[in-house]
Amino acid sequence: MTANLRRAAVLTTIAALALTACGTETAEPDGTADTPRATSPIDFNIPAGERYHRTATFPVYLNRPNAAPADEETVAEISTVTPDGNTLIYTDAAAKRIGFLDIRDPAKPLANGTLPLTELGDADDQPTSVAAVGDVVLVVVDTTGGDFPKPSGRLDVVNVRDRTRVQSIDLGGQPDSIAISRDGGFAAIAMENQRDEEFTPPGKEEGDLPQPPTGFVQLLDLEGAPNTWKPRRVDFDVEAARAAGLDTPEDLEPEYVSINSRGQVAVTLQENNGVAIIDGRSGAVEKIFSAGSVAVSGIDVAEDGAIDQTGSIPETPREPDAIGWVDDDHLATANEGDWKGGTRGWTIFDTNGQVVWDAGNSVEQLAVRTGLHIESRAESKGPEPEGLAITTIGGKPTALIASERSNFVAVYDVSDPAAPVFRQILPTTPGPEGVLPIPARNLLVISSEADDAEARVRASVSVYGYGEPFAAQGGMPPFPSIVSGDVDGAPISWGALGALSADPGDENRLFTATDNAYGPARILGIDLTKTPALIDTALPITEDGKPVTLDVEGVSARPGAGWVLAVEGEEGPGNELVFVAADGAIENRVTLPDDVAAGLGGQGLEGVAVDGDNVWVALQREVKTDRTGVVRLGKFTPADDKWEWFGYQLEKTDVDGDWVGLSEIQVHDGSLLVLERDKLNGPDAKVKAIYRVQIPAGGEAFEPDNTPVVLPKTLARNLLPDLQATRGFVQEKVEGFAIAGNGRLYVVTDNDGVEDANGETVFLDLGPAGDALG
């Protein structure tokens, strides 16, 4: 990958941090450790009958209208399902439409078309939420069009079968979420009348409250024909909100609603840091309470390129977004935060507003432990829990918490509201917002709101099935396939793994390294006997006694002592082979020959393999003076300080904007094994493969155009089926592989530090290399 200047700036200013946050473990190439290895406090390997299995990931751009270009932004935010559980309906505010998916087969969702809001109203209308009831779907529409002082919206009642509008109801303001009572008798709609983040109220800061008009709640009785339905407005008492300690009570902004079995409506007032409870039948406001504040420690609070888990935030407003009833006496909130707060976790309250349980730093630790920490949000709100749903699985009440920024949903058993038990983590595509359990079918649908067509990381609907019947349909390997253990109560930080190497001293261990998405540089040790694979050691790389940041793209253990690292530079001259001792100290740096370095851009050294007295390297892209489509493999002999170069012919995809390059090199059974990949992901991915190249008997040779002579190659393994088998969004950057001492082939993907990627790391055990490689 191309190194990032901002991240690479992390050097000696965080030297002390590296040694503290990474722990004190050291890993020797012979497999021993100077201190006990880290252990995982969480058992991720739960029985198939007691967990969710990912059955499908459907990028919603595949459900676009025929005339819409593939690179048009299209998202899935909030979703609902018809009573029969077969048709999923989702909002797409970016494209101003709602979409329909056929999910009768949860392993194969089918595009079922869209309904543009231009057919129901104006081209600027945006859907904010949907809820299916009977044979209709209630579509909540924001018609404000940016005129914040004059908020407006409506509710369209649409027949699901023919997608015609049956009724349209003026809501009298700008709406957000909708919920249907459990008996189907009424709906509740949060009328946010949201603030303008670029407006400055008199005497306030930009984006502050108050910005009238205040918000309210609409209740809609659903009895009789839709053309008889009329809303009932519920306003909040300003003085009651002030007495409860809410922020700016004169301008309340309802965000999210949920209804319990007694017909009570819970409403979050996110910007006001409050919660209200309304009797849905009478419309009486029964309770308003503050969500309170909490201090959180053991988190990363600085965007500095390093995961420093020694930070903390002082007493901070929770500012909850989504809310759900755990039971009729307890509420759970996802504390995303907005303009003043956000505490990186979730909380359970009783109906009097007393905190029964709070997640503290556990959600962020979960992100770090599974490689999903997003460093660019460290100074803001970290993983930002935003979505939430409560369901019952296996007979137990279960909370589902969606992390907007780290792209996962965490699953908790909340049988005891005072002591939730973590059960599982589910990966998603970027920006999970809609969390929709479908209990009648034991399904869970997660819809994501972030879409980056340029990076080809697309908004999707992820489908999960709970229990043994879905085990055979579920993705393999299950997520997470690799995690880290804890040191002194904090997980070893990791992510952006782009290199693997066998441990010469232990057949059941590998070495890996993060690239410069997270600094300083470290060599991590992996225990392959654990399920999932366990990162249990972290050794900082040092120079003159200080940790350094390196864009490590390849690592190879030297038999007896130390490692060789392939380090990529911002430009060609920055590419180096870095020789490292067993204690992590840099012994030597070897640059590429001047003529080769001068011909490289941002993609240089990518793989390295020690072979006796020689070191083999793979360059990711072509040297500019060489023929297009031919990349170089190099052999370096340290004893002679000598480089030799050989050609490798790249595959082609004929996709605009794509390029193909190399990601890894290994020496095995007298041959070179080379990992080749394109820049494509998801359903577009075409080239993810390991090829075999015979080690040349003679020295280097060049064609008349000075391009190295191309070595013959044969396909050893097409990795696309392996990546597709996860049932997730196929990862672009399959970047590392190795054959461990146990003879098995392992492959890992680089999650780019959760930037321009969904963040999921796939660690594959492909079985005995003799069987896995053709």
CATH fold title of the domain at 5-43 and 481-772: Tachylectin-2, Chain A
The separation of the N and C termini measures: 28 Å
Mean pLDDT: 94
Query: Helical amount among residues, as a percent range?
Result: under 10%
- Quote the beta fraction: 35-45%
CATH class of the domain at 5-43 and 481-772: Mainly Beta
Number of strands: 54
CATH architecture of the domain at 5-43 and 481-772: 5 Propeller
- Shape, per Cα inertia axes: elongated
- Which structural class matches the secondary elements? mainly beta
- Indicate the low-confidence ranges by residue numbers: 1-33
H/I helix tally: 7
Rg is 27 Å
For the sheet with most strands, the description reads: 5 strands, mixed
Order of neighbouring strands in the sheet with most strands: 31-37-36-35-34
Short description:
The chain has 774 residues and is mainly beta. Helices cover 5% and strands 41% of the residues. The radius of gyration is 27 Å and the shape is elongated.
Report on this structure.
The protein is mainly beta. The chain has a domain of 331 residues: 5 Propeller (Tachylectin-2, Chain A). 5% of the residues lie in helices and 41% in strands. The strands form 15 sheets. The protein has a 5-stranded mixed β-sheet with strand order 31-37-36-35-34, with no helix packed on it. The chain has a 4-stranded antiparallel β-sheet with strand order 1-30-29-28, with no helix packed on it. The longest helix has 8 residues. Pfam families: Phytase-like.
